[in-house]
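Below is just one:
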Amino acid sequence: MFDDMLKKDEIDEINRQNQQIHGGFASDCSIKTKNGTFVGKKVKNSLFFYGIPYAKPPIGKLRWKAPEPLPESDEIFEAKYFGASAIQADYEGSPLKHHRQSEDCLTLNICTGSKKTGQKQPVIVIFHHGDFSYGSSADPLFYADNFLKIYPDTVCVTFNYRLGILGFIDFSEVPGGDEYPDAINLGLLDQIAALRWIKENISAFGGDPEKITVMGFEAGAISISLLAVCEKAKGLFQKAFMFHGSPFETYETPKESRNFAKKLMRETSTTTMNELVNLSAGQLKEASQKLMSESFAPTLDGKLIPADVYAAYRAGSASGIEFIIGIPGNETQVYKSSVGNEKYGNFMSETLAYILNYLDAVSPEKANDVRTYIEEQTAVTSKLEVEANIVEQVYALMTYYCAKELAESGNKVHLLYWGVKPLIEKLGSGTVDVATAFLGNREAAQMYGSVLNYDISETLQNLFRKFKDGKTMQLYNNEIKGIAAIDWKEFPQALIVSEKSFQCGLIADRLTEIKSLLEFFAK
C-alpha cells in the first residue's frame, strides 16, 4: 500500500539532504544552538527542523565507537530534510525501504510553535519502534504534521540511533575487539547522547529542559525501561510513556551479542576488527540483510545498564519518573508484517523456545505447565496459533510485571490496556493503532492497514495532555462530547480501551489463560 501511495518525486523529496548555507537565509525559520544555526521551514504556525545532528557522524575511525559530542560552531545549516535512517535490514512491509540509509544517522527532528513566548513549553521525545534492527524517525507513523494541533504549547522531538550490527554487538572475542568496549550497547548510548543534546539545546526551540516526557513503542519502550535506571541518563527525562516493551526483552549476558559478531565475520569473510572497520557501508548493509532474522537487543552488561534492572527499580534507581505503561490485547500481526509470512512460523517457534528455556532455568514447573497447555490447545487448533498465543501472553505479562515492579518501588504508574480490535481483520497492530491514536497520524494508520478511531484518539490525547502537564489523570462528564467521566487511577487499576467504551479496572486475568504463568509474573 505504501509503495502505491508514493510517487517518484515524493521519494526524491524525502531523500534530499541538508546543506551548509553560505548566503542569506530566512531568519524567522532559524534557531541558533551551540553547534550551529539551523534553518528549518515554517508551515502555518509551526516550525519544523529536520536532520539536526546531535553527535559526530560515527563513520571511519568512529565506527562502533561511543557517540562523541559535536564541537561548538557558528556555521549555518539547512534543517529541512530528514537525516538518513540507520543502516538496517529492509523488510518487505516496511514504509522505510525507500528512505536512504547511512552510518551517518545520528540526527533528530524538532517541531515547535512559530510564535515566540516567554514561557518554556513541555517537550515530548519519541523513540521509534523496530526490534532494534530496523526503524527510523522518518517513519510516517511519527510525522509531526498535526502535532501542535493536538498538543499546543509543546515541543516534539524524534531521532535516530544505531541499529542491528552497528548498534548492538560484542566484539570482545574478536582480535582487536578490546578497543571497542561500547559496541555492545551503542544504540542506547546514542539515545542518551540525543537526550543530552535535547536537554542542553531545547530551550532555544522554546522547550523546557526540566519537563521532558519520553514516549516509546516496542524497542523504544524497552529502551526507556532501561534508561530509567541508567546512571548516564539520570535527569534527562521526568515522565515516560512505554507501550509494549519491558526489560525482559534484553540479553542477560553478552553471549548472544558475541554470537552476532561471529556471524557477521562469517558473512563478511573477516577475521579481525581492522578488517571489519575497513568494510564499506554497502558491505555492512548487505550483511544486515543476510542477518535480518537475528534478534538484536541491548545487553544487561552491568556497566551501562545494571545486570538486574528490577533490583535497580526496587533500589529506587528510577525514582522521580512517572510512567504510563501500555499493553496490547492483540499484537501477533505486527510480528507477521515484520518478518513476513514465510518466516513467521519459525520466528514464533524460536521465540517460544527462548521463553521455555528461560522458564526451565528459573521455574521448571511453570515451563511444564506451558508445555501441557500447548499439548491441550493443539488438539483443537493449529500449533502456530497456539505458539503465537503463548508468545503474546508472555510479552503482555512481562510488561505487566515491569509496571508492577515500578509501582511497588514508589513510582507513579498508570496502566493502559489496548483491547481495540483492528477494523480490518488480520491487519493493523496495537503498536501502530496506539501510536496513531496519540499522535493523530491518519495517513500513517492507513499505510499500516489500519484506520484511526477519532473518538478513542481524542480521549487518549486529552489524557496524555494532562499527563505531560502534571495534571490529574481524570476526565469529567462531557469534558469530551459523548464520553463519560474517567478517573484513571494508578496501578494496579488500568484504563481499558475497547471500540465501544473506556473502563477502569483490573486486567491481570485478561493477560493469560495459563494461571501458573500469571502467578509467576505477579509474585
Remarks:
- The chain has a mean pLDDT of 90.
- DSSP finds 18 helices and 17 strands in the chain.
